[in-house]
Amino acid sequence: MKLKYISKDGYCKEYMRYLGVAKTERRSFSESVRLLESNGFREISKFKTLKPGDRVYRGREDRTVMAAVIGRKAISEAGLKVVGGHTDAPRLDLKPRPLYGKGGVVYFDCHIYGGIKKYQWLTLPLALYGTVVRRDGSKVQIAVGDGEGDPIFMITDILPHLGKDQAKKTRDEFFEAEDLDPVCWSTPGERENGDGAPKADRGGLKAFLKKAYGIEEEDLLSAELEIVPAGMPREVGFDRELIAGYGHDDRVCSFAGLMALVDAAEKVPETTAAILMCDKEEIGSMGSTGMQSSFFENTVAELVDRQERNARDIMVRRALERSTMLSADVTAAADPHFPDVDSTGNEARVHMGVAASKYTGGTSKGGASDCGPEFVAEIRDIMARGDVKWQMAELGRMEKGGGGTISQYMARFGMKVLDMGTPMWNMHAPWEIVSKEDCYQTYRAYSAYLRS
Q1: How high is the pLDDT of residue 312?
Q2: Which of the following CATH numbers is that of domain 91-229: 1.10.8.60, 3.30.365.10, 2.30.250.10, 3.30.465.10?
Q3: pLDDT of amino acid 311
């Protein structure tokens, strides 16, 4: 069976388009649902029963989605083949009361979401995306900073001529987290006492919000607004073999899983093939849309109930335990500038294909699910038969740090889980870098797994 994308360039062009649209998890959700529906998938409530070949999806709060192609075998008997990634990314969230004035300027008051290096967000063009919900439940979508002619937002920094005291501080000390606040409005108001510093013109900003979006400042209490880097993905280097963009972690893997599921839908699979595109991974997978919630098992229960009427709890438990999963998340690629953090001989390399990690975590494998060798061997065989370019890797040298994925939250069901994702430079930076070859091989790997 042919792949939907038979060329690296064709696949990466579509991925770059998706990445430019999916600046937040809500936008990723809506674009992913659009792609699913354009390929014949329907929301689960539209199915009373499920039969082999049906294409179905279920979402949660416009952030997390699971989609599946129903296989010939009963899910309680054979489980599912799952590719699971996340679509949230490190950013700055606006606080519930996000506006304050200082020195005649109105700023967005922000809270850090996920692990970032604060200095990387200074003096960059920034965009604002999100949803404002009024008291009556009506919603206003906001997207400013990437459209033609849009303004941008920016966090200012001190000039080097006056930065001697700042230069004496450590990387984490020289800029306070509470000061990671972009300029929102700079039109001055009246001066203090007639001759002091101007007051911040919050009245002018409120009038603008009312006119432009039909919202009051109070409506921002029930808003989800995110500050992200402005700008579309770009190719890197004269050879154009790298892609720079915001949110590769982990939309590069989630998008690959989505396209792989579209491939799997072209022929009725023996075992139900599924993907997860979840939220909140960057802050511990908590909340109603994170993988520590009951969303996944509830969705499996919905699938089992529609495929095998009068489903019992034990049938869902059997389905979960008999499932397998590729935890689709990025890993660190060896950076020639920083060889001292590499796990010599066990590091991922750019252009060498998708990277499998038997375990993540840090020193002592903390927080790792540590996949068994039997499932690793199965995946090796699938990659070989699919002629997929892949590599085995660890996340850096011991005692240098570490990290985790959603694999541990899925492995708790007893399913076999292996981490497998795209190697990356600049992870968690506003602009991350991946290889086109590695992007394409990630897609081919997931496609081979779901169709195996």
Answers
A1: 87
A2: 2.30.250.10
A3: 77
